[in-house]
Write a structure and sequence with these properties.
single chain; alpha/beta; 4-stranded mixed sheet
């Protein structure tokens, strides 16, 4: 039995069976590359679901983490701590907003945004207590908490986990008439992914986000953009909303915010929204801790200073074009923006997971979503030479 087989067997025996993992045990990583326990080299085409936009072991993030860990890594939010002020100011300025609520995971950030939106609705909009509604979209994915899965349209995410939190209206993604009809005097927010990631890399019609922004402004409803996967350069802009020049009322961020080195998430908004929270209304033991703040600050600076969004746009445009030129009998559609791309397979092509396993055998690690979509999301530091290497293998598989 190989060292990798031993690890896989141990995880299957002692771990929860809530993942159907690709059978590879990654031991180390650098940039766009990872190596398994037997020394086999792979190109990472998943980036930990876009948490590793800056690549594996980015030296500036490693340096910031190492330095901070040797000085102070936790105080709790009972006190002020080093790095927090720098982090929240940098992120607020990047988003052109006035206030940042640091959390840890993406799901926590979504839950926090829901609480803020509801309290804003009661306190500022005058909605009767207990009547607040949030419009959400079919095929959405915002996390795994019971509140969030309660407004999922995916049966597996809901089955066996109820009863669920009320107050959400589910409408079809991309249908402006549907969302317009769903808005009432009790609507506090519209929660949307600018591109649906887990839903199969679904890009809405051109102008859809602009129309949602207009609707929210007209009806005094908060536009909440879940940019956990799409944000921080992934789609070729700092935020996916930037493609239409749309500025949401609330940004929900995570994943690459900590550079993949540490779980960091955040809700970002202006004071008139964020200040509905007072002391004791919300909190987190680890939210905004010194170690996370140092990692996030280094991760954000690396994204900005190294032009990663610009590189994602250039490399992503090339990758999308080359995938489209494959003329594979298995491919139905290529879609996405920047380095967030999905390959939807034809019905007779077989499961997308089989293609992911074949790609793994050829040195490329990715995964599938929705059963029939292969997802490609390499780090934003990917070069043209990396694409040359990858396309040779992708063409062979498809």
């Amino acid at each position: 039995m190989s060292a990798s087989d031993s690890v896989i067997e141990s995880v299957k025996k002692w771990g929860a069976h809530n993942y159907d993992r690709i059978p590879v045990v990654i031991e180390r990583g650098a940039g766009v590359w990872v190596w398994d326990m037997e020394g086999n080299k792979y190109m990472d085409f998943l980036s930990a679901y876009s948490a590793l936009n800056q690549g594996h072991n980015h030296p500036k993030i490693v340096e910031a983490l190492t330095k901070q860990a040797s000085e102070l890594y936790l105080t709790s939010c009972a006190f002020y701590s080093t790095r927090l002020g720098e982090f929240v100011e940098y992120l607020a300025r990047l988003c052109k907003k006035e206030a940042v609520l640091p959390m840890n995971t993406g799901a926590e950030a979504v839950e926090s945004a829901i609480k803020i939106a509801r309290k804003w609705g009661y306190q500022e909009k005058g909605i009767p207590q207990g009547k607040a509604e949030i419009v959400v979209f079919g095929n959405n994915f915002h996390g795994r908490t019971t509140t969030i899965v309660g407004f999922s349209s995916q049966g597996q995410y809901r089955e066996g986990f109820g009863p669920f939190t009320p107050g959400f209206k589910l409408v079809e993604y991309g249908d402006l008439d549907a969302v317009t009809s769903a808005v009432t005097e009790n609507t506090v927010a519209i929660l949307v992914e600018p591109i649906q990631g887990e839903g199969g890399i679904i890009v809405p019609p051109e102008g859809y986000l602009t129309a949602l922004r207009g609707l929210c402004t007209k009806e005094n409803v908060l536009f909440m953009a879940d940019e956990i996967q799409t944000g921080l350069g992934r789609t070729g802009r700092m935020f996916a909303c930037d493609h239409e020049g749309v500025v949401p009322d609330i940004y929900i961020l995570g994943k690459a915010l900590g550079g993949g080195a540490y779980p960091v998430s955040a809700v970002v908004a202006n004071r008139k929204i964020m200040d509905v929270l007072g002391p004791g209304d919300h909190g987190s033991t680890f939210g905004g801790n010194p170690l996370g703040s140092a990692a996030a600050l280094a991760a954000l600076k690396a994204l900005k200073e190294e032009g990663m969004a610009r590189n994602a746009r250039a490399i992503g445009d090339r990758l999308k074009k080359e995938l489209a030129s494959l003329k594979s009998p298995h491919i139905k559609e290529i879609r996405g923006k920047g380095l967030m791309l999905g390959i939807e397979l034809k019905e007779d092509a077989g499961p997308a997971r089989d293609f992911c396993l074949k790609l793994k055998e050829n040195g490329i690690l990715c995964n599938n979503t929705h059963g029939n979509v292969v997802r490609f999301a390499p780090p934003l530091i990917t070069t043209h030479n990396n694409i040359d290497w990858a396309m040779e293998r992708i063409a062979k598989v498809f």
